[in-house]
# Entry
Amino acid sequence: MIDGNTAKQGTKALNRPLLGVNFFAGDVTAGFGPYLAIYLLAQLHWSPQSIGFALALGSIVTVLAQTPAGALIDWTDAKRGLMIACVTAVGVAALTLVISDQKYAIYGAQTTMGVALAFLGPLIAAITLGVVGREAFTRQTSANQAWNHAGNVAAAGIAAGLALAGFVDGVFVLISVMCVGMIGCTLLIKPSQIDHEAARGGVAEDSTGQEKPSGFATILSDKRLIIFGASIVLFHCANASMLPLVSQKVASGGDTKSGIAFTSACIISAQFIMIGMAVLCGRTADSWGRKPLFLLAFSILPIRAVLYTLTDNSVALVAIQSLDGVANGIFAVLFLLIVSDVTKGTGRFNVAQGALAALVGVGASASNLIAEEIVQLSGYDTAFYFLAGVSLLGALIFATLMPETAQHARHDQNSGESPETP
# Structure
């Protein structure tokens, strides 16, 4: 259990080891993603269909592992040790890509990464909730995300430098180095700081003493989670393949070095905006509510997809990609806050988080598989138009069916008062 001094401190000051964990996690939890797409296309000369399968494989494995991962995180008190084991697995997978360019090795690395990522996001959220408590969760989560994006900026800058210097495998070595930093920061969090009951979201029984539903049953037991689940599937089906597609579009006329440098520039431009979005969410999510902010994130996706079809200029494409910072910056914070709102007091925060994150994986897998197939058959522009349509459908579902989950925002809306900005 968390002691009184730690709880008191958690409500006043940000937890620095958690900030460090999130800084290094910026590169670790991003996976191989667009860098792998560039590497497979320009360096190993894979077809778009094969690339789509390789990218989707990690997401598919994450989907399968996500709900059991959430249940294990709810159950175990060894959250630090589990975090270290998963980060180590990511580092080993990254080094595997440096050592071997064989298909079985790449598929194995993607599989390992997929399993580890099923644990890492929920583990960071659970440890955060267990260390700082619910009252400070919004503030610490927004700060965590800001540091996460800063870590992504630093890693992308280094990756670009390594690629331009001719070390095209350097991005994968960099991921393993970031893993070491993340492990070091994790060790700075004392086990006594983590309140494991708080990390689960509260007690795990209902008023009659019966155990609450788990896994996807948790989602199906609450209409809000069903609607939210459908929304995030469509959000990521629209969003996940955009950066890999535009990176491939540029790399198809160049080489691996220029492709990685372009991808890094896209990541950096978006991550700077994500830092601002994380700060915005930390200051306004409790007073404005979750819904208007999430709708803002949704509205960016179709705009970005259509703009990609209007130019082949690299500088313009980097500028367009920066809009991803608005969408993903908001999503990263709001996802955790909405799940925390809905599961408050149920003891199923991590199980619900895991099940919903599995749906994120479903959307991402579908995005990569379908979009790459469309590229193969009809070209990049058609794929981007398809993604724009998917995002509009998701925005419509969320806008019309999803209720507000923030308690203070609901109260202000019901009373007709204007919410105060902290």
Observations:
- The domain at 4-198+213-407 is CATH 1.20.1250.20 (Growth Hormone; Chain: A;).
- The chain has 19 helices and no strands.
- The radius of gyration is 20 Å.
